Amino acid sequence: MNKYNLIENILSNNKMIRLRIYTLEYKIEFNDKYIIYPILYQNRKYSYNSLKELFENYMIYNEPIIQNIDKIRIIE
After folding, report:
1. N or C: which end of the chain has fewer CB within 10 A?
2. How many domains does the chain have?
3. Higher pLDDT, 76 or 14
4. Cβ-based neighbour number of residue 56 at 10 Å
5. What is the pTM of this model?
């Protein structure tokens, strides 16, 4: 199972996941839309209609998450 599918599975069961990408921790929540934000900057929330859209459009160090999927560590 690749990380994208694993994250999708966790979100379908728990509605929330914490990830570490590089040095920052992020939280992805699902509540009608997918919401992502860095835990240190909780006022910077971005919402997307699908997990695929989130992974393709949310930028970390000027690259979409999908390009850094191998750097993702799942915390919970």
Report:
1. N
2. 1
3. 14
4. 13
5. 0.89
